[in-house]
Q: What sequence folds into this?
């Protein structure tokens, strides 16, 4: 079984497709059809893609993979193509497109014409990948019962570029940042909610919630 590593970039260019949405910034992980793995990260502006891992297994050409590399290729019209030189005489092509927010699919192709081991090619092997759903998490803040009439909430999101909106009790949603502080709270039961929005405009449909009571 051969382990083949791609050690240099041969080319990187965008593939044509029909633009339909802004690609969310996230880390995408998935499977290649023959048992390999694929992992890549989309930049915060949605325009660049960094391959973290592409590893193909159980093919007639053995096992081949690429190491982590710099940010490439560019993403245009929801699509991308990366071409890698694989030592000593092989080439790997990774092509893909974003079919929906946080969903991607494509093909991996590998072929070589090594003088000693001979020619070998895989044809197009399908892969699929997805990013974690957009989630908002409250990391700190009051809960249960307290005699304090102030509250400070800290929160985060699975999207590194997220903005937030907060809501206290029956008040309207308002833009906010972590930490979010409230003062002069009445002695009563309260509910704090927060939701994230990524740079593509996707809004967390299940806002994080924390309830507590001021006695």
A:
């Amino acid at each position: 079984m051969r382990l083949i590593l791609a050690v240099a970039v041969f080319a990187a260019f965008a593939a044509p497709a029909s633009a339909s949405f802004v690609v969310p910034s996230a880390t995408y992980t998935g499977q290649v059809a023959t048992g390999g793995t694929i992992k890549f990260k989309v930049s915060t502006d949605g325009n660049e893609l960094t391959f973290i891992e592409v590893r193909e297994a159980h093919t007639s050409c053995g096992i081949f993979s690429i190491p982590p590399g710099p940010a490439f290729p560019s993403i245009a019209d929801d699509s991308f193509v990366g071409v890698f030189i694989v030592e000593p005489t092989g080439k790997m092509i990774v092509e893909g497109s974003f079919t929906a927010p946080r969903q991607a699919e494509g093909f991996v192709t590998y072929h070589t014409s090594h003088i000693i081991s001979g020619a070998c090619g895989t044809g197009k092997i399908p892969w699929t990948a997805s990013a974690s759903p957009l989630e908002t998490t409250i990391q700190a803040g009051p809960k249960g019962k307290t005699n304090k009439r102030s509250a400070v909430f800290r929160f985060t999101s699975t999207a590194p570029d997220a903005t937030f909106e907060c809501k206290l009790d029956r008040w309207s949603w308002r833009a906010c940042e972590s930490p979010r502080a409230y003062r002069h709270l009445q002695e009563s039961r309260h509910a704090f909610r927060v939701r994230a929005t990524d740079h593509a405009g996707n809004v967390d449909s299940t806002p994080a919630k924390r309830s507590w009571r001021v006695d």
Q: What stands out?
A: The CA atoms of residues 8 and 85 lie 5 Å apart. The first strand starts at residue 3 and ends at 13.
